[in-house]
Amino acid sequence: MPGAVPGPTGGAAKNAAARGAALAREKLAQAKADAAKRGQLPREPRKKAAGPRRESGDPQLFGRAITDLLADRGWREPVAVGGVFGRWHEIVGPEMAAHTTPQSFADGEVLVVADSTAWASQVRWLAGQVVRRLNEELGDGTVQRINVQGPQNGPPRSGGLRVTGSRGPGDTYG
Questions:
Q1: What stretch of H or E contains 121?
Q2: Distance of alpha carbon 113 from alpha carbon 150, whole angstroms
Q3: How far apart are CA 148 and CA 111, in angstroms?
Q4: What single DSSP character describes residue 148?
Q5: At how many degrees (to 10) do helices 62-73 and 76-86 cross?
Q6: Facing residues of 111 across strands?
Q7: How much is the pLDDT for 15?
Q8: 107: left (phi over 0), alpha (psi -120 to 50) or beta
């Protein structure tokens, strides 16, 4: 993010990059599975594209071939989102990326999970800037809102014994 405070470098940046690459691979696999459900398998014959006709054996620029493949299979947006999720640490800054993870994208909403309630509040406060930055990467209007979730588990409890049932005023007497 512009103006983001530089965070830890070295190992933390490498971990964030590895985590981002794994997330991008996961999103690409999800996009392929979704395409297979729609019946758009990679071995299906290609639809004829408008434009200059080319013979099947003629060479084609690699970038153009990939762009055509993504468009034909309906993978353009899922791949773009996976790429953004894979570069999350570059987009939001290393400090925020160390404490947040994008989980999913659906209907213009990005689900972000924070590792603490403080970071969840921080992301909610900066949601407008994050949406603007994501739309710079994906195209205007692609991301409309961010849904932020805090940690799913509370702090670890110490000790082995637990009292079950509800607590109430009777617990303080006696």
A1: helix 117-125
A2: 6
A3: 6
A4: E
A5: 110
A6: 104, 147
A7: 73
A8: left
- Sheet strands side by side (includes 109-114): 100-106, 109-114, 145-149
Task: Provide the CB-side half-sphere exposure for 164 (13 A, CA).
Answer: 0
Highest mean pLDDT among 13-17, 29-33, 119-123: 119-123
pTM: 0.50
Q: Kindly report the CA angle at 117 between 113 and 123, in degrees rounded to 5? A: 55
Give pLDDT, residue 98.
Answer: 92
Radius of gyration, alpha carbons of the chain: 23
Predicted pLDDT of residue 99:
92
Domains assigned to the chain: 62-149 (3.30.300)
